Amino acid sequence: MAQQVVTCIARRAQSTSSVGAEPKVPAPQNTDDKGKPEVRYPRSLQALHLRPLRREAEYGIPSCDLQIRSFSLQPLEFFSDFALRAAYYLGLAASGPVPLPRIIERWTVPRSHFIFKKSQENFERVTLRRLIQIKDGNPETVQLWLAYLRKHQFYGIGMKANVWEFSKLGVGKTMDLSGEAAKELEAPWAHLGQTKTLGTAENVQQLLSSRRLKEFGDLRELPTSTSS
């Protein structure tokens, strides 16, 4: 009996509270100084101000090590961020960028010539490096990622990539088959474009002295009359 009374009181309290509840008012939008609502930027544009998204590797098998080099820090960091974002949208699990030791090179040269050649000056060049590693990547997708980076390469940036591909046993036989297939395509491809050679000098002379070529060059020979 006590349990029934408690449940009835709870239901009655819930019903009375719902009757007297005020309607929900939507939350006010963010406004600027003039009172106008601020326009929200697209998600793709907002993501530029945040850290690049990353995908987790399932097995952790390295597929590519990309080393980015530059003499300045700003283009190096910019292109490293660009490479990570491109890898995310291609579905590649990328880690990095990992700072690598700097490469410091120095040269000592004479300051001037003749009587001032004893005074020397030093020049120094510091190369900054970053490492980005791709794990569990499809070889075709990795090649597509590298080609995209080469196409949109930033100025003052150098890249060096080490790519690993895992094949099944007996890959040598498949390589021989691909070589034979390439040889079979040499004959059809030789007739494409102007890659076909003209042959020896005799063939060239025969082509130049042909009657059709003379007709196109307005060098048509007059027919000679033969006396019977």
UniProtKB/TrEMBL annotation:
One of its GO terms (molecular function) is structural constituent of ribosome. Residues 65-162 form the Small ribosomal subunit protein uS10 domain. Keywords: Ribonucleoprotein, Ribosomal protein. Residues 12-39 are annotated as: Disordered. It holds the Pfam family Ribosomal_S10. GO terms for cellular component: ribonucleoprotein complex; ribosome. SUPFAM superfamilies: Ribosomal protein S10. It comes from the Eukaryota. GO terms for biological process: translation. InterPro entries: Ribosomal_uS10 (IPR001848), Ribosomal_uS10_dom (IPR027486), Ribosomal_uS10_dom_sf (IPR036838). Belongs to the universal ribosomal protein uS10 family. This is Small ribosomal subunit protein uS10m. It comes from Stachybotrys chartarum (strain CBS 109288 / IBT 7711) (Toxic black mold). The lineage of its organism: Eukaryota, Fungi, Dikarya, Ascomycota, Pezizomycotina.
